[in-house]
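Progress narrative, Year 2. Work on tRNA (guanine-N(1)-)-methyltransferase from Ancylomarina longa advanced from sequence curation to structure prediction during this period.
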Amino acid sequence: MRIDILTVVPELLESPLNHSIIQRAKDKGVVEIHIHNIRDFSEDKYKRVDDYAFSGGAGMVMRLEPIVKAIESLTNEREYDEIIFTTPDGEQFNQKSANTLSLKKNIIILCGHYKGIDQRIRDHFITKEISIGDFVLTGGELAAAIITDSVVRLLPGAMSDETSALTDSFQDDLLSPPIYTRPAIFRGWKVPDILLSGNHKKIEKWQEDQAYKRTKKLRPDLLDE
Ligand code: ADE
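Result:
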């Protein structure tokens, strides 16, 4: 998979996407992640990427031309399955969206900034608008990092134990069961006996029950779905 991220603050994306599982997935060739600075596509003398809104009022708007040039520099080279815009008024991102995106070959993520982008970009280039929740960030970069992280870890070969992505919370509309490691007793707090029994069938059944109970208690809405 190839992910191209367009941003006016590339520094915000570098750290989250250069470590741990995501870095290893890049090293293994499971994913290519390219971060592009929209400013590099500005023909303005001062490399400006924002301007005043025609409507007046507070807040600057991301200009159309550098974004169009940045997008077309990519789409002229290869086909993209989605051109995503991160914005609080987009559709709510969840595990299903991550699963769907992980099946795509090439995607572009355009990070919103300032008051927003010129609407014509949304009308003519963007194929999907994504919000990571009902709150407003200073820009779409952290949202893009979250989307990328959740998608890349699903790619075959990204994680050493591939079944582990399949047993995540939400993967079958249930939260994960509780999990423990050594020592079996700490300050008198014991790991449930069943997990020490070595009986894999019983352990699996226990995990299913626990996942259901936890979901019912913490996220009953998932069961309604
Ligand atoms: N940009 C600002 N806030 C955002 C959010 N909640 N989701 C996606 N992009 C954003």
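The first strand starts at residue 2 and ends at 7. The chain has ten helices and nine strands.
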